[in-house]
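Handout for the seminar on molecular recognition.
Each group receives one record of this type.
Step one: identify the two inputs.
Step two: read the structure output and locate the region that could contact 6R9.
Step three: write two sentences on what you found, then compare them with the reference statements printed after the record.
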Amino acid sequence: MSNESLANLLKEERRFAPPAELAAGANVTEAAYAQASEDRLGFWAEQARRLSWAVEPTETLDWSNPPFAKWFADGKLNVAYNCVDRHVEAGHGERVAIHFEGEPGDGRSITYAELKDEVSKAANALLELGVRKGDRVAVYLPMIPEAVVAMLACARIGATHSVVFGGFSADAVASRIQDADAKLVITADGGYRRGKPSALKPAIDEALAKCPEVEHVLVVRRTGQETSFTEGRDVWWHEITERQSSEHTPEALDAEHPLFILYTSGTTGKPKGILHTSGGYLTQASYTHHAVFDLKPETDVYWCTADIGWVTGHSYIVYGPLSNGATQVIYEGTPDTPHQGRFWEVVQKYGVTILYTAPTAIRTFMKWGDDIPAKFDLSSLRVLGSVGEPINPEAWVWYREHIGAGRAPIVDTWWQTETGAMMISPLPGVTETKPGSAQRPLPGIAATVVDDNGVEVPNGSGGYLVLTEPWPSMLRTIWGDDQRYLDTYWSRFGHGYDESDPAWRYFAGDGAKKDEDGDIWLLGRVDDVMLVSGHNISTTEVESALVGHPAVAESAVVGATDATTGQAIVAFVILRGNATDSEELVAELRNHVGKTLGPIAKPKQIKVVSELPKTRSGKIMRRLLRDIAEGREVGDTTTLADSSVMNVIQSQLPGGS
Ligand code: 6R9
């Protein structure tokens, strides 16, 4: 990273100490860092004991064939038992596991005892349909409780689930079903989005024309809309589950038994099926949820707004919270249906104490205005989380002030589908937080920043984020493609690059810097870093500078090929409600970036638009904007949350129709 842009982030001097009361009663204190650094494996062995094992592991890490790890390999457990039955057995059967809030305003609360019955019936239904341990099951559902039940039912019988986000096209679903070789699909007639039923089943019907191996489709009735049914293949979820016994004995599975495959889109190439296994994954998902959110299962009401089709939904709606016996909210729909205060209404209704959401959502709430959250009682909130992208300081401070009443600590959690669980994050009762920084590797996690040659950079410098020790919830491989696993993550630095280097280094693909205290600041995907007249400039920093101007609500920055400077910075901005597009404003924004980051970072062009192309997890697809900036036809849009957005953007640009 160039030094001029680094200097900018170093200017962020605001600091926020943890609230004294939270610190005094925190689940995890400063001592955990020292304990874990003295004996990292002993630390994880202790965290594994937070779970119930059918056979306790005696071995912690087997790293004899790096970078293929085995954690707790001689232990046996059942993940669903850990998430459901053991809480009932401990006398918490009457505790609510899920408060479901449907978009149309319907809902139901499900206790742990009820969840146990539902998961057992679904497990029995899967068995009746011929699904066996080791088979793959694709899940294509809206955000309804059945999504959680379906995943846990798979885990219970040892089937490996592959959840595909409900917004993906038939083609995207088909390629994922084929790659995982799934034998059964669980879907629904539809779900509610933006005030109306939106069909899901037609995409499955279309996809399955190309997937002859799929034997059955289980269909949940959510909307009641007209749905085509293929005799012999399709089965209604309610019909088959109703007649099942609510007794099912969970099988003890090997710690390394495959729990799920989740496809990450990646910027290029075919999606990668990230494989996660059971014991290590659950250990870290469970521990981090307990530590980073300071979860008190008796009193907290937790809400993660992610979709189940994103890794955040897997680890922090299903496995982390349920393994900890949490009470949580699951919300089906969009944040502005039927009104822009819907999230805050939900917080008030259920007394949510811990909220976990994404920077893109926070910036949208900022754009809608401070007066909207102000109408609701948000005083129950005590910890706020952020995930998915670097959070710009502007949004961080707004989140703290307007949602957290200037009191609730923010935990900015860095992790990936591949890491399975959180890796770098403040701890709410320990860390003095800095707006925009994920700060410090969690206890038991080793991460640093290296330069092009893989050498650790000194404090105050930038480079690439690497993970320097294996961790329990790490991906085990890319499904069916060990070589791609090695090439993508382990060949850029360390032993996989240079055999004389004894150390294995996981390359995360993110740019990062260390500040003077050694705290880590994430700078976005390395593929997105721009090279302008020989200077590396991170898209994140230019975007953050633009959003720092009062007229700008959101921005996305790309480097477009330029004959003179190599790459030129092109910015797409969404204005706030009270600002209008004009030449003066564009000039002012360019100057504002110049003043904040230095003249080299001034965008060559600024284009005002009303939408930005995003994945469902809120990540901007810069690749598509680069296509526009370089005048090419727009590439593959199948992983966009809303595929019509690219047409909208193009029609708003000069020469657009
Ligand atoms: C959990 C998740 C992973 C990529 C990751 C990074 C970005 C996620 C972040 C963050 C800065 C954070 N990312 N959290 N960047 N600060 N707190 O998002 O998984 O969808 O696989 O994306 O997201 O670029 O490499 P996934």
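Reference statements: Residues 57 and 454 are 35 Å apart (CA to CA). Residues 1-6 have pLDDT under 50 and may be disordered.
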